[in-house]
Amino acid sequence: MSLSLLKPEIETILSSEETVDSKLENICHVLKQNVKHYDWVGFYFKNGDKPELKLKTYAGKPTDHIIIPFGKGICGQVAVSNENFLVEDVSAQDNYIACSIDVKSEIVIPLFVNGENIGQIDIDSNTANAFTQEDKNFLVWLNAEVAKLY
Ligand code: SME
C-alpha cells in the first residue's frame, strides 16, 4: 500500500485525547499491521541525561535491547550522527545489534524537537533491502508530526 494513505490515520491518533505514550504505541501497531515489510516498529528516546537510548514502545516480538548505549548498533549510531540510516543488509554491518535472527534490513530515523535529536523510530524488516526513499520520506514526516507532541 502507499504509505501516504496511512497519514490520516496517524493524524487521528496524534490529535486524540490519549496520552503521548499510548499515541506512540498506537502508531507502532498501525504501522506494523498495515505495512507488510514492517515486522518490528519501535520508538527509542534518550534516557534522561545518560548517553543511552531507552525503548519507549514497540509492536512486534519482544526485544532484549531496552537500553542501547550511544554509538552502539544502528540505533546508537543514529543517536550520535543525527542522520537517517537505511540498512539494506544487516549482516553486512559491523556495528549492529541483532534483535532477532529473522531481521534482514532496518531503517532508523531520528526525531528532532527544536533541532535536538531526542529519539528515533526504528523499523526492522524480515525482508532484505526492504526500505526505500518512500519509507524514509514517510518516516521523516511521521517524526516531524510526533515531535509536535513534545
Ligand atoms: N538493530 C538495532 C537494535 C534494536 S532492535 O532492532 C529492536 C541496532 O542495531 O541498533
Structure description:
- The chain has 150 residues and is α+β, with helices and mostly antiparallel strands.
- It has 4 helices and 6 strands, in the order H-H-E-E-E-H-E-E-E-H.
- It has one domain: GAF domain (Beta-Lactamase).
- Strands 3-2-1-6-5-4 form a 6-stranded antiparallel β-sheet, with helices on both faces.
- Strand 2 (52-59) and strand 3 form a beta hairpin.
- Helix 1 (7-14) packs antiparallel against helix 2.
- The longest helix has 15 residues, at 20-34.
- The chain starts with 6 loop residues before the first helix and ends with a helix.
- Bound molecules: methionine sulfoxide.
CATH superfamily: GAF domain
CATH class annotation: Alpha Beta
Oligomer: single chain
- Per the principal axes of the C-alpha atoms, what is the gross shape? globular
Q: Number of DSSP helices?
A: 4
Order of helices and strands: HHEEEHEEEH
- Total tally of structural domains: 1
Question: Separation of termini?
Answer: 29 Å
Give the CATH topology. Beta-Lactamase
Strand order of the largest sheet: 3-2-1-6-5-4
What share of residues are in beta strands? 25-35%
Tell me the major beta sheet: 6 strands, antiparallel
Helix amount, in percent?
Answer: 25-40%
DSSP strand count: 6
User: Low-confidence parts, pLDDT < 50 over ≥5 residues?
Assistant: none
CATH architecture: 2-Layer Sandwich
Q: Compounds present?
A: methionine sulfoxide
Q: What is Rg? A: 14 Å
Based on secondary structure, the structural category is alpha+beta
For the residues shown, what is the average pLDDT?
97
